[in-house]
Write a structure and sequence with these properties.
two-stranded antiparallel sheet, alpha+beta, about 25% strand, elongated, Archaeosine Trna-guanine Transglycosylase, Chain: A, domain 4, about 300 residues, 7-stranded mixed β-sheet, about 30% helix
Length: about 300
Amino acid sequence: MRGFVAVTDRSWYEFLRSLEVLDEVNFWQPSGNTEFAAVDIGEPIIFKLHYPENQIVGAGFFTWFSILPSRMAWDAFQLKNGAPTYDEMRTRVERYRRAASDPRAEYQIGCVLLRDVFFLPRDLWVRAPDDWQPNIVRGKTYDLSTGEGARVWNDLMVRAPGQPQLSDVDVPPMFGPEVLARRRLGQGTFRTLVVDAYDRRCAITAEKTLPVLDAAHIRPVASGGIHRIGNGLLLRSDLHTLFDQGYLTVSPDFRVRVSQRLRTDFDNGEHYRAFDGTELRLPNRPEFRPDPHQLEWHGDTVFKS
């Protein structure tokens, strides 16, 4: 198993360590022009502070990478971006990009999404790899079975007892998108995965203006649904509202159904009824497609037939 030792700043570490629950974290990169390929899904990312501390302070497991507008990243992950407000996050992005302050600016940032993140207290920090070079800006990939990679990883395991994600060092927790599709995700990761699975286009209209696209739960969390990609659809916000209120559904064979109640309840709805019977735009990956059982539940339980 490999691990990526990533450079981060102390304010990010201290803020996230102060939060009580961390089911997911966005380890964002200020520049959104480079894909992240340092490790595979399920492999760890290990946090190392900048000089002069130069210490290992925690880790998490790589779940997904996406390039997102900074505002969308904030809306999806909020405090789990490692900042108390969006303005503070934007200020940090501008500082790293050496850009002039502009409250109206929208930056594309790289979002390295992590699960099962943990942070060590100051007295348990781990020494950085002995072969680390001060000119490394972003990070370095290590083999965790040998040399300094193994030493750092073993020290982390010893100093973080009880962490469930550290129990099987030789078996990565995930093996790729197929297994990822079956995992329970954090809310922000769920939203990002649904956006990417549908190629950033509404599954009904093909609308691609991101601010008006929502990751809709087929079965709401309040009704026993979970953050899993098969329980999601990417919908334009007005269609999301109609879907949640039962005026629109998708059949298990992936066809849109629009309720006649739109006409009787509102004496309107011609625009939406035009979608009745159309085929859903499906993700390219079969494992990311909506679960027919969840669609059947929505049609039986929510849809106003």
